[in-house]
Amino acid sequence: MLSKHWTVRQQALSGEVYPPEVVDDVDSYPWDAITGVLVAGFGAAGSSRLSGGVEYAGGSTVQQRAAGIADTPEAMFEYLSQEVGDAVSPATLARFCEESAANLEWLETHGARFASTTPKRKTSYPPDGVFLYYSGNETVLARAGRHPSAMRGHRTVSAGQSGATLYAALKKSVRAHGATVWKQAAVRRLLTDRAGRVVGAEVWRLPEGSAAAQRHTAAHREANLKYPFNPNLAESLRHETLQIELAHPKPVRVRATGGVVLASGGFMFNRAMLEQHAPKYLANWRNGSTGCDGSGIRLGQAAGGATSRMEKVSAWRFISPPYAWPMGVAVNRRGQRFCNEEVYGSTLGNAIIEEQGGRAWLLLDRRLRAQAIRECFGKELWGFQKWPALAGMLLGCTRAFTLNGLARKLGMDAAVLAATIDANNRAARGEQEDEVGKSPAMRRELTRGPWYALDLSPHFKFFPLSSITLGGLAVSETTGEVLRGNGTPIKGLYAAGRAAAGIPSNIYLSGLSLADCVFSGRRAARHAVAAYAEAHCKELTA
Is-contact 4 36, C-beta < 8 A? Predict the structure, then answer.
């Protein structure tokens, strides 16, 4: 008998997923191993290692109180209701907010650390040494409610980006609590009894220490490292890892008494699934692990599970920092403003993809461009913030000495563009309200040429527009069980994180996906462990 809670690290890239095998007699079936709960995935229900390590939490966390920030679950609910929409029920969102601070503390019991230092101004990702910040649209006037805004982005304490640190803490805790971890293993098939209950899984493992396993490790690591710089090479490496997985595995049939939890991430690296569900986002830069191929979602579908919000993708078009950029104006093909430039990156990115056909530009005059360049040469910005910004402004901008000349180069209506800049300038002078609701502190007159237009579209090579998928398997909001199309649960099968639809499946905010991974992962675990305990008691009394 193996440990009661057993984790399989799901590393299939675009791997084969097979229909479930029906087991006539579960007790007499020739199982190779038995466990209590089988988890297909690792980290925080997916690829937390490559994340920013930010947990969206509020309602009065220890860190908020230390920073002098007043917050309540009610204030958090009021704000998130605008962002989450109907992705989950109001009751589930309220429960998420009420449990938020406790979930952050739970992460701390497993080795993660959080702190209360705050930044001087709103940013897409805080500078080193800063760990509590506004990670969404809380400061945008249109999102203001009865409660004051509050910083809820809790970044894991670390030097550099925090995802790897959070992942390392969780990995260490998993091992310390006695769970058995299988690396280089992929669930290829679920096993069910005659009633349709999931009772186990077929896991394909590479022989530990073999030449195939060593090459697989190297190719997988290299694919993740090379993707941002050489996507074609990364795809070739992904293909190689898949061939190794299919040519050299040992199938192992594992009985899971309490059930199987699918926690293997989304499907951003599965082109066929993107073409089927979210074709508008095919040109976007893919964020996360190259193992986010939708295999967990496909396993659930093969067992009869329904999916939800598969068309939802977060497109991150961050234009702050440089902090001068949101003082410019974002315009569409006609030269009209279409979105408040100070909104969170996915709010802007999704507006560009969904409403503007993927085409938009950020307009700066000479002063704002010079200010932005100076910021990029300062010490406050991360490399991933400053270098793409500099490349875009120095090498990729469309430039003209007059607005008419810029409109001509961009194929815009010159009169429309001139009217847009005039309206912006009158709002900056306080003569009228800003037409897209930008706050007074972020308004600037644009008057001095040359004029510069930074391409905000997905194909702009100097300034990648990265994305993750947000939809997944439909699950019970009380148990985490995967649901069939008729709304009934598939007993013994759970999904969490981006393998499931959940809190961030309408629109993403920094930290909201990791927070949902913890929320949905703990929900599934509670129910699965209870199922294991019930089955174990029956075995003891039989």
Answer: yes
Residues 36 and 61 in one domain: no
Structure tokens given for 217: 């490790």
How many CB atoms lie under 10 A from the CB of residue 441?
10
Cis peptide before 249 (omega within 30 of 0): no
Tens-level pLDDT at each residue, the chain (542 residues)? 233 444 443 333 445 789 999 999 999 999 999 999 999 998 887 678 888 999 999 999 999 999 999 999 999 999 999 999 999 999 999 999 999 999 999 999 999 999 999 999 899 999 999 999 999 999 999 998 899 999 999 999 998 889 999 999 999 999 999 999 999 999 999 999 999 999 999 999 999 999 999 999 999 889 888 887 788 888 888 889 888 988 899 999 999 999 999 999 999 989 999 999 999 999 888 887 778 899 999 999 999 999 999 999 999 999 999 999 999 999 999 999 999 999 999 999 999 999 999 999 999 999 999 999 999 998 889 998 999 999 999 988 999 999 999 999 999 999 999 999 999 999 999 999 999 999 999 999 999 899 999 999 998 878 888 899 999 999 999 999 999 999 999 999 999 999 999 999 999 999 999 999 999 999 999 999 998 888 776 654 54
Residues 243 and 371 in one domain: no
CA dist 535 and 255 (Å) reads 12
202 and 249 in contact (C-beta within 8 Å)? no
Q: Is residue 461 situated within a structural domain? A: no
CA distance 282 to 45: 24
Place of tokens 């229909």: 19
For 53: left if phi > 0, alpha if psi spans -120 to 50, otherwise beta; the answer is: left
Strand partners, 197: none
Question: What is the Cα–Cα distance from 15 to 298, expressed in whole angstroms?
Answer: 10
Query: Are residues 382 and 256 both part of a single domain?
Result: no
- Do 403 and 533 lie in a common domain? no
- Domain match, 30 and 177 both: yes
